[in-house]
Specification:
This protein has one domain. Helices cover 46% and strands 12% of the residues. It has 6 helices and 5 strands, in the order βαβααβαβααβ. It has a 5-stranded parallel β-sheet. Helix 1 links the parallel strand 1 and strand 2. The model has no long low-confidence stretch (mean pLDDT 82).
């Protein structure tokens, strides 16, 4: 069983989640990091302390969600130049998390990487809300990158 890190849920706060992880060593997570980023209003580049917090979350995660946020918006357009640093940060987190997951798995394991499509109706222009191409990009970049690196054991990403 995995508990999801998500707004309006038990593990919606980074500091509370870290405390729970310390008290329940066997607890595994489904990591949706975007909610921590928005809630904490994180700044890039991350400081050493924040890097440590996220390393702990990633080490305890066995599933990942493909939503990319900024510190002010829960889901961002991936092709906007001003979002480049956030896209790179999430790719680094996913690489770190998936590499850790791969080290813990058996040969027949399958990683669950949920591609977030976001809400169908938002006040944003259609260009930004065109989630399907964004979702496809996320899926392609995540699986192809880790397949090339040889980090995915067994059945790959589901």
């Amino acid at each position: 069983m995995l508990l999801e890190t998500h707004r309006n849920g038990t593990l919606n706060d980074l500091f509370y989640t870290l405390e729970v992880l310390e008290m329940v060593p066997e607890l595994r997570l489904c990591a949706d990091l975007s909610h921590f980023v928005v809630d904490r209003e994180l700044q890039l580049p991350l400081g050493e302390t924040d890097q440590g917090y996220f390393a702990t979350i990633l080490e305890r995660s066995d599933s990942f969600q493909g939503r990319i946020s900024s510190n002010q918006q829960i889901q961002i357009a991936l092709d906007f130049p001003q979002h480049r640093d956030w896209v790179m940060q999430y790719r680094q987190w996913w690489s770190q998390g998936i590499e850790g997951w791969a080290r813990r798995q058996q040969a027949d394991a399958t990683l669950n990487f949920l591609v977030e499509l976001g809400p169908p109706l938002t006040p944003l222009p259609a260009r930004i809300n065109a989630s399907y191409p964004t979702a496809g990009w996320r899926a392609y970049k995540s699986e192809s990158g880790w397949r090339r690196s040889g980090q995915i054991p067994g059945n790959g990403i589901a």
